[in-house]
Design brief:
Layout lengths: L3 H15 L3 H4 L4 H22 L8 H27 L2 H7 L3 H13 L5 H20 L4 H22 L7 H22 L5 H5 L3 H24 L6 H8 L2 H13 L7 H23 L6
């Protein structure tokens, strides 16, 4: 049987699986969605830091870096929900699996390390699966494109966040990144979609309640819980479990939304191969360190 702490980890991954559903439950556009998610989450994390009496201030250098990374996070969430708006939850979640592919490309460039052979093989498998999905679901082309961009941005901010290590506390990282993302989304709305500010003002109670739930439980709480679980698990174990997010999300979306989330058998086979290959790659790299060279 799973221990209490293992159940907490699975519950956290399940929470992340739910986040895609909000793309359909909330009826406003993607940019205003992210505007609410980041602003409410920043406020809640600020209260959390105050209650815990944690130092909020960071150095000027770290502040600028975190705000910029937060902008990437904001763009990541925008492209994620935009992918759902123009296609469906299943497409957006399946393309998230590309994160491992992009990480294998970004890490060697930023950290100036050698490319790992197993990562090249993983890249080929994942790329082939995405092409397979693309050909099998041409009607979702735009959603797949947004999803691929979303996955790249996810890998980028994850790698950039890893450079901080012990320099800044995780809760502070999240707080300033939420602010940076909020500022970025405001700029995008002003420049490209000024009309969407009317959606912010006239959000409606039903949408606001969904957005508050998304920001408080599925963003602020989930991030704090994510940080706490590092006391009990290695980063490898946590990240391996996070790969289950698309599976949970696709199943949940199918249950909640029914027919609109049903895809072709090819989609499920390709997605399954992608996720399985990522998990197997992680296990091999953990068990056989020589494959990391």
């Amino acid at each position: 049987m799973l221990s209490k702490v293992q159940l907490r980890l699975q519950f956290l991954v399940l929470l992340w699986g739910f986040t895609g559903l909000f793309g359909k439950l909330v009826t406003i556009s993607a940019l205003p969605m992210v505007w609410f998610r980041m602003s409410i989450a920043a406020f809640v994390i600020f209260i959390y830091l105050k209650l815990k009496k944690q130092q909020i201030k960071v150095s000027s250098k770290h502040l600028i870096q975190l705000l910029l990374i937060g902008g990437i996070v904001g763009l990541h969430w925008f492209t994620f929900y935009q992918s759902i708006k123009v296609s469906n939850v299943a497409i957006a979640l399946s393309t998230l699996s590309l994160g491992a592919l992009f990480t294998s490309i970004i890490e060697p460039i930023l950290f100036k390390r050698k490319v790992v052979i197993s990562e090249i093989l993983l890249s080929l498998v994942v790329s082939g699966c995405v092409i397979w999905i693309f050909k099998a679901s041409p009607e979702y082309k735009l959603g797949i494109i947004y999803g691929v961009i979303c996955s790249f941005l996810s890998a980028l901010f994850s790698v950039l966040n890893s450079t901080f290590k012990e320099q800044v506390k995780p809760a502070n990282i999240t707080f300033y990144e939420m602010i940076g993302g909020f500022l970025t989304i405001n700029i995008l709305m002003i420049v490209f979609q000024p009309d969407t500010f009317s959606e912010v003002i006239n959000v409606g109670w039903a949408n606001f309640m969904w957005l508050a739930l998304l920001a408080i439980v599925f963003t602020a709480f989930a991030q704090i819980e994510f940080v706490n679980l590092y006391k009990y698990f290695s980063p490898y174990t946590i990240l391996l479990n996070v790969n289950l997010e698309p599976i949970y999300g696709i199943i949940l979306a199918s249950i909640v939304f029914g027919e609109s989330e049903k895809m072709t058998p090819v989609f499920y086979i390709a997605t399954g191969i992608m996720i399985l290959s990522i998990i197997v790659n992680g296990i091999i790299k953990n068990k056989f360190p020589q494959f990391n060279k």
